[in-house]
Design goal:
The complex is a heterodimer.
Chain A: E1 4-7, E2 10-13, E3 19-25, E4 31-37, E5 44-51, E6 54-57, E7 65-66, E8 76-78, E9 87-94, E10 104-105, E11 109-113
Parallel strand pairs in A: 2-11
Antiparallel strand pairs in A: 1-3, 3-8, 4-5, 4-9, 5-6, 7-8, 9-10, 9-11
Chain B: E1 4-7, E2 10-14, E3 19-25, E4 30-38, E5 45-51, E6 56-59, E7 62-67, E8 72-77, E9 86-94, E10 102-104, E11 108-113
Parallel strand pairs in B: 2-11
Antiparallel strand pairs in B: 1-3, 3-8, 4-5, 4-9, 6-7, 7-8, 9-10, 9-11
The chains are: A mainly beta, B mainly beta.
């Protein structure tokens, strides 16, 4: 099993609150990713990073922001949570960029905004 | 438009039976195709990966096939077990981008009954 961790696993929070979803990996991977997944739907890439101080937006527009100050850590922040942010958020990492590198996924954070 | 379509959307089988899941894709230029298993509330875990030149790959009771000409893949599960209950996701990578863009299907939800 991959050494990539996400906390919290479940979060129920009220509208307007600021939240940070944590993601860390111990594999020394430079590349990290955040995906959003609604029930029964495909994963959508919302952010990725090639390394420290590198962050890019993915294909799906998201009001969240990310930072990459340390190689092993890639947190995602929502400044003001809304019910439309209710979803599962999956973090992943890979050794390199490019199709031949497998992405290893964390267990996900199930976010519910009331 | 690059897409990955999976069928059936859901499937129920009895323990010990075999089943086959289908994946059709339009991703181009094609790099590789992966099948992931995603248990409820967990992140996806890779089962198999196939490149253009490979037409079959096995991992225990899981056997994936690829027809790059017709852009179809299948995942065959032999002698199903209760622990096989999960969502099976077909993921296709293109080789046209530095990132190694992944295109996800919506998954087939497999339920194995005793």
């Amino acid at each position: 099993e991959a050494d990539i961790y996400q906390t919290p696993r479940y979060l129920v929070i009220g509208t307007g609150k600021k939240i940070t979803l944590e993601c860390s990996q111990t594999m020394g991977h430079d590349k990290m990713y955040w995906y959003q997944q609604d029930p029964g739907m495909e994963l959508h890439l919302i952010h990725y990073s090639y390394g420290v101080n590198s962050t890019e937006k993915g294909d799906l527009s998201s009001e969240s922001t990310v930072s990459r100050i340390r190689t092993e850590h890639f947190p995602l922040t929502l400044e003001s949570a809304r019910p439309s942010h209710t979803s599962q958020y999956l973090c992943a990492s890979s050794e390199g960029a490019g199709a031949r590198y497998e992405q290893y996924f964390g267990p996900g954070t199930r976010l519910t905004v009331t | 438009k690059n897409q990955v379509e999976q069928s059936p959307q859901s499937l129920i089988i009895l323990e010990g039976k075999n089943c086959t899941l289908q994946c059709n894709y339009t991703v181009s230029p094609f790099s590789n195709l992966r099948w992931y298993k995603q248990d409820t509330g967990r992140g996806p875990v890779s089962l198999t990966i196939m490149t253009f030149s490979e037409n079959t790959k096995s991992n225990g009771r899981y056997t994936a096939t690829l027809d790059a000409d017709t852009k179809q893949s299948s995942l065959h599960i032999t002698a199903s077990q209760l622990s096989d209950s999960a969502s099976y996701i077909c993921v296709v990578s293109d080789r046209g981008s530095t990132l190694g863009r992944l295109y996800f299907g919506r998954g087939t939800q497999l339920t194995v009954w005793p």
